Amino acid sequence: MTSRAFSIDGRTFAFDAPLGDALPIGAYVRIAVEGDRELLGQVLDEEIGAASERVSGHGNLLADLDAGSGHLDGSAVFGSGTLEPAADDLVAAHLASSLGGSTGIELGEVQRMPGVPAQLHAKGFGRHTFLCGQSGSGKTYTLGIVLERLLLDTDITIVVGDPNSDYVNLQTLRPAAETGLGADDYRALAERYEAVASRIHVFGLDASPNRLAVRFGRLTFEQQTMVLGIDPIADPEIYNAFVRTVNAIGDAEYSIDDIIAASRSSFADDERRLGLRIENLGVDELSIWARGHQPIAQVLPQDARMAVMDLGSVPSQRESSIAAAAMLGRLWENRHAR
What is the pLDDT of residues 105-164, one digit of tens each? Predict the structure, then answer.
């Protein structure tokens, strides 16, 4: 009994195979169809039939092996074909051609295909990218590998918001004994990594000189009002008092302490209520405020390759959000400089 396949849209395929010839989900397959045509596909799902003797499933068609470019043109509709596991060299050639000449970020090897590199498009990180998976599936480890490869193989500038302190040691290369590399390979890797390690800056609440610190006045005005929990419609008097207080200070480098001092020195009830609101909410007691330290937005060097914000070092989600907002605000202000 053979493994059979068919496609009704030229983009996907369905298959039916003996239980003994079942292919694991994710496996690459070579499909021979009418007219001596051959296609490359990948299994996406499968299930055992009611009789438990055969397996059926679906997959995507990836390439026309007879076409010069290997790309599908929508004409790969077929009513009968046979499929078998694709050879490692065939998969390697397809994955290499899919990069289209762009730099590939090598993450490891394709599962069940030793020696076939698994790569991502480097230029893809210039756009939105979403990495997801179940708990324990390896997201944190995989992202760490991606960050390391981006540092080594590209000139992309990276800012990491690290809520669990997972990437605070990216400046440090693992000992040779833990890598499995030979002495020469490890030495070559160490030389490459040392060239970028000095441009990786980790900011933490207790880090020196890179303390994770924020100047209240450096936040956007909208962010400041969010920290204080005031709304122009729901809290019109206090909101207006805050606007007047900021305008009276007249310096963009004001701190939360400056706001409190100004409110205390005022004889207006709304300004005094503003000061009481700040103290009652404990905003002035947050450890994230700069107070004697340079704000993170001013400390980060222009030639930095990576800034890791150790948000796991701050005591509350509130402060973590403030630190992230400060960094994102700085990046947005300078977005046109790329």
Answer: 888 899 889 999 999 988 888 888 899 999 999 999 999 999 999 999 888 889 999 999
Which helix or strand (DSSP H or E) is residue 91 part of?
helix 88-98
Whole-number Å distance between alpha carbons of 137 and 170: 21
> What distance in Å separates the CA atoms of residue 1 and residue 3, rounded to the nearest whole number?
7
Q: Which carries the bigger pLDDT value, residue 32 or residue 291? A: 32
Q: State the Cα torsion 117-121-122-125 to the nearest 10°.
A: -130
Tens digits of residue pLDDT in 164-197: 999 999 999 889 888 888 999 999 989 989 989 9
3-state secondary structure of 160: strand
CA distance 150 to 157: 9
Report residue 135: phi and psi, to 5°: -60, 130
Nearest CA to 282 out of 323, 243, 318, 314 is that of 318
Residue 144 burial (CB < 10 Å; 0-12/13-18/19+)?
Answer: middle
Pairing of strands 158-162, 306-310: parallel
All residues at 6 or more sequence positions from 118 whose CB lies less than 8 Å from its CB, including other chains: 95, 106, 107, 108, 109, 110
Mean pLDDT across the chain = 89
Q: What per-residue confidence (pLDDT) applies to 34?
A: 81
Query: 3-state DSSP helix/strand/coil percent for the chain, to nearest 5?
Result: 40, 25, 40
Q: CA Rg, the chain, in Å?
A: 28
pLDDT computed for residue 74 by the predictor: 64
Task: In the chain, count H helices and then E strands.
Answer: 10, 11
